[in-house]
Amino acid sequence: MCRKARNAVETGTYHIIMRGSSEITLFKSDTDKDRFLNTIKKYQTTFRFKVLAYCIMSTHVHLLIASNGANLSKFMHGINLSYAIYYNKTYKRHGHVFSDRFKSKIVQSEPALKFVSAYIHNNPKDISGYKNKVEDYKYSSLGIYLGIHEDVLNIVDSSIILNYYDTNKIIARKNYFTFVKARQALKDSLSNTEQICDSLNNVYDEYNTLLLEIKNFELNKDHWQYTSGKSETTKRVKPEDIISFICNNTNINNYDLQIKYRRNTTEFRAFSVFLMRSFCDINFKNISSLLGGISVSALCNLCNKGYELIKSNSYYTNILTKFLKEYPA
Prior knowledge:
Elements: E1 13-19, H1 30-47, E2 50-56, E3 60-66, H2 72-90, E4 103-106, H3 110-121, H4 142-145, H5 159-162, H6 169-185, H7 190-216, H8 239-249, H9 254-258, H10 266-279, H11 284-290, H12 296-312, H13 314-326
Antiparallel strand pairs: 1-3, 1-4, 2-3
Helix pairs in contact: 1-2, 3-6, 3-7, 8-10, 10-12, 12-13
């Protein structure tokens, strides 16, 4: 039987849940959890999505992600596969690590974002020692929201949700924490949170329909438009633009990029593949046809190499900065 197509929109925000296979503990140690966070950071750098909240438990993970124009299924598949390979290698096992494909639910409105983030941040309440101290749990973003823990990897964008509570950061943190604790007292369940989210999303849809009707009557919609404070990035760069940019800003040409085994152009190919995966809505098969038929596994390695070049080599960091100026989000 075919699986139901995932409900997704280009610039949507999603509550994502990933559960481990029934016979394993998905995260056996802090090292596993740290590895998962580093994997998220790696794919976030490539696909430029925003993480609004997270909580990593021993058997499952909750994420609140704004796709920011990226393909949700593509980067989540990469995160899951990368962690599964690490897990099986570390614990010398074979087979599935996750119980099924990840679950995702669209979160459309400001109130829904508040409820879902509070539910995620209250997840540690059932762990011994954290019932009344969920903010102390190391692998939840709540501590980052409240300034208790440092966001070492710079993964979380807490400003979007905190700005709903006050423009003053100290007051916003206090008000948000009060809301989180209030939801904990009400003992929110996942199903209850999803029902609330669905109701709020329906209100949001009805409101947008009303706005459309107002526009059709040629009234000034700008005075009525709901704005969330979120800025979205839509990928509009063509792969040909990236090849042209690389050629114009380096000492190589298009022909050099197409030659598979020329060592002095490997880094430029890696950088090109990374840019295409980050800014173009294409897969490795499409990229292969543009770069002389390179295999998918080789393209994966090149993309990883491109990521490392930007992290460690100022030459490529400067070229990326120039690219972002020429093709602003």
